[in-house]
Specification:
Growth Hormone, Chain: A; globular
Length: 436
């Protein structure tokens, strides 16, 4: 039923602007969108399915975090080597998005997802059967490449169907579903470790990928009809040049990259920090990670409501101030010996502020790039995850073995400071038109 409704709506939809020009962010023109005629129930179905689709990436990244100490012991390698497998996953995820995004603009949304996720399933099986760190690293990179399809295509599909404040609302709803992944992933991972050795985590990911392929094949219809692909006549290079010609988009890429790099510094350091100096076991760490992830969900949902009254650029400006204060507070608390709670409480506030930034970055990146939604989403994801993958090893290098929260918090503070600089010098909040 829902598939037939969307196909009918898309077949009737005619964009009001050319494929090389978008309606300005502050324009008073109200362009009808295909998704506007969907019923509330149909929108909920799409939110759930697309949110589940995007969750493959977070599950791939977060599910094996509780297994870090076990991996280090079993493979007889250093903490830094295990962290590099996480970095490899994120860099693969970034590179995969650069391929999947433009491909989805050229050939449609469904096929790239199925191809990429099939690679993810194969790589998950390879990771589960790895016997040394080199093989694990290779398959983790391929897992990242394969997981890239879901996030990029789901975001592009939402942009195919919606615009304006409806786009903001749908992205926030999808982020709510997607936000459950980092909450449940470490919890599921820690419980899997009670039943199986660490390869069981990767067998679980292979099964999840297979379910994604089945869901896409059965429930997801093509939101980019053939006639709209033919209308553009643009090469991949031309699509990239159009998107990268937008100063605000460039600035948001940099801000988004720094925002996620700060969060990823926590992701890469927290298994060793909380299961090491702070003495949590795998199950306690999984619970802590879930509580922290609730901060992201809360930030995303509150931010979506604030955006009705405040421009996304100003929400980012306020959130980055909170992030910087909280990161510096973690450093001060750690140096004063306040222990677990001195780190955990300001860390939760930092993570919630990060959640405030996420929907703002997505809206500013996509709103003027509807005709190249896949390309814009791929660039945003690639820069965000690629930057995070390059920055996160600094935590281990600064700490020479993670024995305190200070190295993690210093990297977080530096990332926020850079993101704030890019916001005011490249994006220039006062130059961003009001969202209509």
């Amino acid at each position: 039923m829902i598939g037939q409704a969307v196909v009918a709506l898309l077949s009737r939809h005619r964009p009001a602007t050319s494929c090389t020009q978008a309606v300005p962010l502050g324009s008073n023109v109200s362009t009808p969108q295909p998704g506007d005629l969907l019923s509330r129930r149909e929108k909920i179905v799409y939110v759930v399915i697309l949110g589940t689709l995007t969750a493959l990436g977070p599950f791939t990244i977060d599910l094996y975090l509780p297994a870090f100490p076990a991996l280090r012991a079993d493979l007889d390698v250093t903490e830094a080597a295990i962290q590099l497998t996480l970095t490899g996953t994120v860099l693969g995820f970034a590179a995969g998005q650069l391929l999947v995004g433009p491909l989805s603009d050229a050939v449609g949304r469904r096929l790239p997802v199925v191809m990429a996720t099939s690679l993810h399933v194969g790589a998950s099986i390879g990771a589960a059967t790895s016997e040394d760190i080199s093989a694990l690293m290779l398959f983790r990179v391929l897992q990242g490449v394969g997981a890239a399809g879901g996030g990029v295509v789901a975001m592009a599909m939402v942009r195919d169907l919606f615009g304006g404040y409806t786009l903001v609302r749908m992205l926030s709803y999808m982020a709510l579903v997607n936000g459950m992944a980092p909450i449940f992933a470490p919890v599921i991972g820690s419980q899997l470790l009670l039943l199986f050795p660490w390869p069981g985590v990767f067998w679980f990911l292979a099964g999840y990928g297979a379910l994604v392929i089945a869901a896409v094949s059965i429930f997801i219809v093509e939101t980019l009809p053939r006639e709209r692909r033919r209308q553009s006549g643009l090469s991949v290079g031309q699509r990239y040049r159009l998107v990268l010609g937008d100063r605000i988009f460039i600035g948001i890429l940099l801000v988004g990259g720094m925002n996620f790099s700060g969060l990823f510094s926590y992701l890469s350091a927290s298994p060793f920090l909380f299961q090491g100096p702070y003495g949590l076991d795998e199950q306690q760490y999984g619970l802590l990670f879930a509580v922290n992830s609730l901060g992201i969900v809360a930030g995303v949902q509150i931010s979506a409501r604030v955006l009705r009254r405040v421009g996304p650029q100003w929400v980012i400006a306020a959130a980055t101030i909170v992030q910087l204060v909280m990161a510096l507070l973690i450093v001060a608390s750690d140096q004063l010996g306040f222990g677990f709670w001195g780190t955990a409480l300001p860390l939760w506030c930092y993570i919630m502020a990060t959640g405030f930034v996420f929907p703002c970055v997505q809206v500013l990146a996509l709103i003027n790039n509807g005709a190249q939604a896949g390309t814009a989403a791929s660039l945003l994801g690639a820069v965000t995850f690629g930057t995070a993958g390059l920055v996160s090893p600094l935590v281990g290098l600064l700490g020479e073995g993670i024995e305190s929260a200070t190295p993690m918090a210093l990297v977080m503070a530096a990332c926020v400071a850079l993101g704030t600089t890019f916001l005011w010098t490249v994006v220039r909040p006062r130059s961003v038109p009001a969202l209509q």
